[in-house]
Design goal:
With 391 residues, the chain is α/β, with parallel strands linked by helices. 43% of the residues lie in helices and 24% in strands.
């Protein structure tokens, strides 16, 4: 071997360690999941991430030649400043390719400018205020909007003999969206709104509101509250203050009777009518496969709910987009791959509207029933291909 050839081989060997990590990085797509993993909304992050992991268990973790890497960051609750800082760190320090997660609207809205300025695709897996997708051209939503779920409930109630309703909603974006949509649709169908109240997002005391409702003697209360401790407390107060015995029904979006907390609320929920886009009781091969894989992946601590389904579908949309782009995360190519995308979800057929980048899906009318000792939202009517009515 000549000295010149030996020197060339040594130079090539020395170069290899520097090349290999760069090549490896190019073969990975980093997803920064910003969500609530601790505090009173900790189940939101757990359900979203659980759904994403379930998709990867069933479908592998390489799409378009790129391996998926998930990096999680905890907002600890509705903390817009924290959410924005975490997203900025993910973009500038961790070099993520895609932002995802977002259980709560305030956090999603705070991160939207980071997506817009950094040209990072942002996949919403819960936050449901209508306006969110307008805040960055790189946002797509695979969950739902409150107007989308609410309008069918108002229409169904008016058609089924409910004429006088009191509305109670949580005082933040999704609650205001649901109240506005319900009032408009219910009045248009000939119904009467007896009164309306908005409760604090943090630690509300429902007692005075429930007494006010009871004194107003409506036929029904339309309710939107974020799932968790608030919904459990509301149902307890509704029962204790005798509203059920007074014949005042509850109608709601499925947030109130969320699959993840339904068992904890117990028998007082039986018979509640609600409108929503996903139920653990949805009867389809895709949902059965999802439920089985979710338990295998995440255990039995949480019953998978609509956030888990949206995490699953959000991961599915990312995977399909990567297949279409050949693994490219160029923001414009990636968004073009997402627009108009159709998927078969555990909830049914869904589509990403090419104009609004919001989801189009079936909204089901459900009744809480006990089946084999467990409570479920059982679907008995549906409104297919529902878009956000405000867009």
């Amino acid at each position: 071997m000549t000295r010149r050839l030996r020197n060339l081989l040594c130079a090539a060997a020395l170069a290899l360690p520097a090349v290999a990590p760069a090549a490896l990085a190019q073969d990975t797509v980093k997803i920064g999941v910003v969500a609530e993993f601790s505090g009173p909304f900790a189940d939101y992050g757990a359900q979203i991430l659980g759904g994403m992991k379930t998709y990867l268990k069933l479908n592998g973790d390489v799409f378009g030649g790129k391996k998926i890497e998930i990096i999680t960051r905890d907002t600890t609750g509705p903390s817009p400043d924290v959410a924005k800082r975490l997203a900025q760190e993910l973009v500038t320090r961790d070099n993520i390719d895609i932002l995802a997660g977002f259980g709560l609207t305030p956090n999603a809205l705070a991160v939207a400018p980071v997506s817009a300025e950094g040209k990072k695709p942002m996949v919403i897996m819960n936050a449901a205020t209508s306006v969110i997708t307008t805040r960055s051209p790189y946002i797509v939503r695979l969950s739902h909007t409150l107007p989308q779920d609410t309008q069918p409930m108002a229409q169904w109630a008016a058609k089924n003999g409910i004429k006088r309703v009191f509305t109670l909603v949580s005082d933040f974006g999704p609650g205001i969206d649901s109240e506005t949509t319900f009032v408009k649709a219910f009045k248009s169908a000939g119904g009467e709104i007896v009164d309306s109240v908005r409760t604090p997002l943090a630690n509300p005391d429902f007692a005075p509101f429930l007494q006010r409702i009871k004194d107003s003697k409506p036929e029904a209360i339309f309710v939107f509250l974020p799932p968790g401790s608030q919904t459990i407390a509301f149902i307890k107060g509704y029962e204790e203050r005798g509203l059920k015995q007074a014949g005042i029904r509850i109608i709601d979006t499925g947030d109130l009777t969320d699959d993840g907390t339904l068992q904890q609320m117990g028998d007082p929920t039986i018979g509640i009518i609600n409108s929503f886009h996903y139920s653990a009781a949805h009867d389809s091969p895709e949902n059965k496969a999802f439920l089985k894989a979710y338990v295998e992946t995440n255990g039995t601590k949480l019953r998978p709910n609509f956030m888990a389904c949206a995490g699953y579908d959000g991961m599915a949309a990312i995977a399909e987009a990567l297949k279409k782009t050949g693994g490219s995360v160029d923001p414009d190519k990636f968004l073009a791959a997402l627009r108009g995308m159709k998927l078969v979800s555990p909830r049914g057929n869904i589509m990403i509207d090419p104009d609004t980048r919001d989801i189009v899906q079936t909204v089901y009318i459900r009744r809480v029933e006990k089946i084999d000792g467990l409570l479920y939202n059982v679907e008995f009517d549906k409104y297919p291909d529902v878009k956000d009515p405000g867009k």
